[in-house]
Amino acid sequence: MADDLCSFTKDIFLVKVPKKSPLVLRMIVVMFAMVCGVYICSICLKQISIRTKVGFVSFPEVIQKPCQKPDIEPGEVPYVHFPKPTTYSRAECACNPVRYFAILSMQRSGSGWFETLLNNHTNISSNGEIFSVKVRRSNMSTIAETLDRLYNLDWLSSASKNECTAAVGLKWMLNQGLMQNHEQIVEYFNTRGVAAIFLFRRNLLRRLISVLANSYDREAKLLNGTHKSHVHSHHEAEILAKYKPTINATLLIANLRQVEETTAKALEYFKSTRHIILYYEDVVKNRTKLIDLQDFLKVPQRDLKSRQVKIHKGSLSNQIENWGDVQKALKGTQYESFLHADIRR
């Protein structure tokens, strides 16, 4: 009886535990691995986002930090600019100051040669006769838009320099909308801090010869069927110089007087702007004028050179077909000195 009771008791306490399914264990392990993986990934992503935020916050703060203006006189402050082009980055030169200028002149006054001298400077970019295209000077709105693009360093031409340009401008003829819109342009110059560089010619008779000869070549195209306003070889210059224009002696004095009056008006209209007045003959004879110009633009001094070759040189008697008539017309007048003056370059 006792043995039966003991056997019964053993059966109660020796009940076998049922085996767990291998599939359930595997699922538990997989779930645990997934949870651990998600947790680890979330930690990594948080660390990456923190580093990214730090990098992108600190970098723009450096780039967008306002440029410190160099030590300059108070009167020069309006003429110091830090343009931000939309077409490229000025990179390490972003805080290099830039001066704005405009060469104001008349056709055949040496402005083409003068501009090549400026563009010979590493840090000066003069972009030619931008307003020779009529649509750009159709009204003050289009003029301002064109100038804004130029002075923001977004005007791309063969004269464009690198991002370290220190002076940027253009060549603007008086008859290209300049005189007609002079009041608004003067206001623009003074508001935007644009300096005017006047370049005129003292001997207006020689200028007239150049105007007539250039006009003739537009049709004749003496250089192998090609018209060239400027040349870079003595051979081409000699070919163009062979043409001798005939000048209307009756209208000559009136023509010279009109050019003088236009020049005087331009100087009067723009007298309130920051400006410098240069004459072609003075620049040719005295290269210190180029030193004065570079000082005016506040750029490093350089020895400026041009590859252009002068076309008309020597005695005027060899350049005018009706020389006798011209002599008679100017003798005894205020323009008589034009008959004798000569310059070489």
Automatic annotation (TrEMBL):
Is this entry keyworded Membrane?
yes
* Keywords tagged on the record: Membrane, Transmembrane, Transmembrane helix
Please give the start and end residues of each transmembrane region: 23-45
Coiled-coil regions listed in the entry: none
Per its record, how is this protein called by name? Sulfotransferase
The organism encoding this protein is: Rubus argutus
